[in-house]
Design brief:
single chain; mainly alpha; 4% strand
Length: 757
């Protein structure tokens, strides 16, 4: 209780400091008549005395639920009781020994006002409104009581990490005062406190407060720190809810989306009309054939030959084809189609989708979330079952592996069909146009429209497009560095991962950079095999050398949370996002792609070799994911073991995947191949790229919009994960149908490209 009062002193002291300032500014009778006996407290004892009055209302308000349930009173009736009780207490003066000293001072308004006018400038509207708010609070006005009730309170579990007490955002924002002298609404803010006593047992909390909307964060911080009282806590920062007007960039984004929607509507209507016309024409042809006394077999054969086929495949004008690129029917049917082309590597669809499931699982736990029992998570992280979440970063290596495999396998097959020739310029152009349009659209939406997706003080701070000087967030990073994403160099500049625009876009930059150098190896493998192998080995050794060098240089550790806070772990920026440190899985994929190109359909293995391969691959994969379990139980790797793990872990994971793909595509996958080649994965695989782009936005928007902290439980996180998963793919389908698929169709139409590599 003492701790709670000491913290509350800081928050309520603001009002004691405002009385004198507000009286100087206001010369109407209403305010002065209510607060004419107020003086500025001179010491902490006066402030603590003021707390007696401030906390009088709190027990009453805490009994709201009990009163409503016991007496079935509505809110107005209950607060009418509070107001009458409060006024009764005021008329009695609390009894003489309970009256706050500041209320017993007895200074006349005239003397007080004259004394202040010589020392203070005219106060701001914020100070005036706070003065009215406090006088209304003493009078028991409902809106003032509701604002106080919206304050953050001391919750249980402080020693478990419950240090953010946001209060009630919606209740605060819905309050207002309207009179002939002033008008204001409630504004929710969060005050960040710092415990300057290093020997203190209590952490530094962040507490929600409710103030008039004429006050801004800077004023609140300044006023709270203007008169230090005898307390261990100081205010380091304040963040307040902001209501944003639509910026020019947001309007431009909405206009772009509106034009895209118009094109989709036109394209869909045109597609429907075209299909109806073709259907009517086919019926007419069938009727003509029936009139010629053709039998059913002949009619069926005719329906697949020249008249109908020519009608259906008749080319539209360029304008017609352009419009059809935006048809939701055509694009949606392409995405939802489960049939795969003959000769495709079906197991890759399952690996691709399950890998993104793993990515979303990791981000569900690692993204910004306000756990009220965060300190108990140390025990959760140390569980053996939790290692698959701690090491979810290997899911990205699965994507690198698949990219290397596909670019090599498809390109070599294309070159084989074209006598070793390929248009390398179009090779790059197609890749860039395949990824970039929807990527830039997501950045555009994220940077301009995200501030309007949610509400709350924390939300406003996280997605503030115009923060205070010196404050940066993801939106400001995108405003400054979006062009690095356009050039796919965002993993190199800026140098810090958290300063990148769309921080998860580092993977796309790496993948594009690997793609750029891949033709040099592919060309050599096709024409000069041993030279290609040599180039492949040089790149792999370069990767290993950089990992060894960085591990030794920075004394990297494999501990998830290093005991030494200054020590970096192996997912630090120095090696996590650098292409020369992450290329090894891509190279393994290229090797598997070449093997499948060269020997697919001609490989035979004994049962023993098949079982041995599966056992080795399983052991390697489990060793990579669960090999660091000992770190959580004081069984740490040696320095040499740490260097070896950091150097080989991602390469080893790719080798484990290599066997899975090799076995499944050569007929030795068994039930694993049946699962990974399941046709249901095909539509999900087509929208995987869009799901990767938008899922962190969905997760972050949800988490920072939460009105209060969340108590961690496994069951709750399962619900969060499944909701994040479903919403991510649902939104990805919409994005793919409305943006990705039209852009792909336009690229094919404009470049007159029939097949891609």
């Amino acid at each position: 209780m003492y701790f709670n009062m000491r913290l509350s002193v800081i928050l309520t002291y603001i009002f004691a400091s405002f009385y004198c300032n507000a009286q100087f500014h206001v010369n109407t009778g209403e305010f002065l008549s209510k607060s004419k006996h107020i003086q500025t407290p001179q010491n902490a004892e006066d402030v603590m005395d003021r707390m007696v009055y401030s906390t009088l209302l709190q027990p009453m308000l805490q009994s709201v639920e009990y009163q409503l349930r016991s007496h079935k009173l509505n809110q107005k009736e209950f607060f009418d009781e509070i107001k009458s009780a409060t006024k009764h207490q005021l008329s009695l003066g609390y009894a003489k020994n309970m009256t706050p000293k500041m209320l017993k001072a007895g200074h006349s308004t005239k003397d007080f006002k004259t004394g202040m006018s010589t020392t203070l400038e005219s106060p701001s509207q914020c100070i005036v409104d706070l003065g009215y708010f406090n006088s209304d609070l003493q009078a028991g006005d409902l809106y003032a009581l509701m604002m106080v009730d919206a304050y953050g309170k001391l919750p249980p579990g402080v020693f478990q990490g419950s240090i953010i007490w946001p209060g009630l955002y919606d209740q605060c924002q819905s309050q207002s005062k309207s009179s002939n002298v002033t008008n204001f609404e409630g504004k929710h803010c969060i005050v960040f406190l710092n415990n300057v006593n290093r020997n203190a047992s209590f952490p530094s909390p962040n507490i929600g407060i409710c103030v008039p909307n004429s006050c801004d964060a800077e004023q609140i911080t300044s006023l709270l720190n203007s008169r230090r009282i005898d307390t261990d806590f100081t205010v380091t920062n304040t963040i307040c809810t902001k209501v944003y007007e639509y910026s020019a960039a947001a309007i431009a984004c909405l206009t772009t989306l509106a034009l895209l929607c118009v094109m989709i509507i036109i394209g869909t209507i045109y597609d429907l009309a075209k299909r109806r016309k073709e259907s009517a024409a086919l019926i007419f042809i069938d009727d003509k054939n029936n009139e010629g006394d053709m039998n059913i077999a002949e009619t069926s054969m005719t329906s697949e030959t020249s008249p109908k086929k020519n009608l259906i495949t008749q080319n539209d004008s360029f304008f017609g084809q352009f419009i059809l690129c935006f048809s939701m029917i055509t694009n949606g049917s392409k995405i939802l189609k489960t049939k795969q082309r003959e000769g495709s590597l079906g197991a890759l669809n399952g690996i691709r989708v399950l890998s993104l499931f793993w990515v979303i699982l990791g981000h569900t736990y690692s993204s910004t979330i306000l756990f009220s029992n965060i300190l108990t998570l140390f025990d959760v992280i140390a569980r053996f079952s939790f290692q698959v979440i701690v090491n979810a970063t290997f899911s990205v290596d699965s994507f690198f592996f698949l990219s290397g495999l596909l670019v090599t396998y498809l390109t070599l097959n294309y070159m084989k069909k074209n006598n070793g020739r390929i248009n390398w310029v179009m090779f790059y152009v197609h890749r860039y146009l395949r990824l970039t349009p929807v990527y830039m659209l997501v950045i555009f939406i994220y940077t301009t429209l995200t501030p309007y997706f949610g509400t709350g003080s924390l939300y406003s701070y996280t997605f503030d497009p115009n923060p205070a000087p010196g404050v940066e967030n993801q939106l400001t990073y995108c405003q400054d560095y979006w062009w690095t994403n356009l050039l796919y160099i965002n993993n190199l500049y800026p140098s810090e991962l958290l300063r990148e625009c769309l921080a998860w876009g580092w993977y796309l930059a790496n993948d594009m950079q690997f793609f750029i150098i891949s033709p040099f190896i592919i060309y050599l493998l096709y024409h000069y095999f041993f030279a290609g192998v040599a180039a492949w080995c040089i790149l792999l050794l370069t990767c290993f050398s950089s990992l060894i060098g960085e591990s030794i240089k920075h004394d990297l550790t494999t501990e998830f949370i290093p005991e030494d806070p200054t020590q970096l772990n192996f997912i630090s920026d120095s090696i996590y996002v650098q292409p020369w440190s992450r290329i090894s899985p891509y190279l393994v994929g290229m090797a598997v792609g070449y093997i499948l190109y060269k020997y697919r359909g001609r490989i035979q293995m004994s049962i023993f070799m098949t079982i041995l391969g599966w056992v080795i691959a399983t052991v390697i994969g489990l060793a990579v994911v669960y090999g660091l379990y000992g770190n959580f139980h004081d069984n740490h790797l040696t320095k040499a073991g740490t260097v070896v793990y950091i150097t080989l872990c991602r390469f080893a994971w790719a080798v484990s995947l290599a066997w899975v793909v090799f076995a499944c595509t050569t007929g030795y996958g068994g039930p694993v191949n049946s699962l990974l080649s399941w046709s249901a994965w095909v539509p999900l695989a087509r929208i995987n790229y869009c799901a990767y782009l938008i899922h962190p936005i969905i997760i972050t928007v949800f988490y920072v919009s939460l009105p209060n902290m969340i108590y961690f439980t496994d069951f709750l996180m399962v619900h969060f994960y499944l909701s994040n998963l479903v919403l991510s793919y649902a939104c990805a389908f919409i994005l793919s149908v409305c943006a990705e698929a039209p852009f792909m169709a336009l690229e094919k139409l404009i470049l007159n490209r029939e097949k891609s590599v």
